[in-house]
């Protein structure tokens, strides 16, 4: 969608509608930093009727286990990444699963690649739903200069985690991902684990061995571009049994866990970050083990953290 909007803007330059491109570019210059300053969200877009069909296709549901109080700010860790983060998108960017009803007074945001907000027109669409760049400046603004009652969801595993996405296997890239904990400490934002059961069931991916030439290409793309090209397939347009690029209709259940109180420390030490990072991992493991049997995993299945 971002690429299409960019090509459309370039195409209009060579037509009689070139003033549209010119005016938009002027607007873009003046509005360049808006994504880093809380964005520009619209409730009516989050409540589009099309999101209900989107939810029911899988279906997707949001499970609340504890209250989130509007007097606090939160960082929600979203796991796993999967291929397209469908559970996180549906629950935190649309109102189809009833986030506002379950957490009154809480404004959810979802952090994504900053490069997406450099695409003309596409950036407006992203901001209108509550998406923000996954940068220190953008997240810091929401946690410190946008009042209270903000919940920023971060898919912590990122592009690296998408490479290990396989049905029936829960592998998270988390051991060395500590920046979100440091930000929580700097702003006194409470940490909340969440897990989307079924996220890894939506596509089938070709997983390449470590050290193979294709895996090396994926890793280089991740480091240079921020995303990893994956070879995957889903269902076709005509049949669930045919291959295509639609996700398989598998239930996704996003369980939001108990908020973990975090003190405000302007310059936390490495030891303090490690301490709360360890607490977060234990809280996430507890959440997974308590709900895994109910939402598609066996009692013997374990959450692997790399």
TrEMBL record:
The enzyme class is transferase
Asked if the keyword Lipid biosynthesis belongs to this entry, the reply reads yes
- One GO term (biological process): lipid metabolic process
Q: Where in the cell is it found?
A: Endoplasmic reticulum membrane
Cellular component, GO annotation: endoplasmic reticulum membrane
Provide the transmembrane region boundaries. Answer: 6-30
Asked if Glycoprotein is a keyword of the record, the answer is no
Which keywords, in A-to-Z order, does the entry hold? Acyltransferase, Endoplasmic reticulum, Lipid biosynthesis, Lipid metabolism, Membrane, Transferase, Transmembrane, Transmembrane helix
What GO molecular function annotation could you give as one example from this UniProt entry? O-acyltransferase activity
Record's bilayer topology term: Multi-pass membrane protein
Q: What is its main location?
A: endoplasmic reticulum
EC?
Answer: 2.3.1.-
Query: What family does the database annotate?
Result: Belongs to the diacylglycerol acyltransferase family.
* Name under which the protein is recorded: Acyltransferase
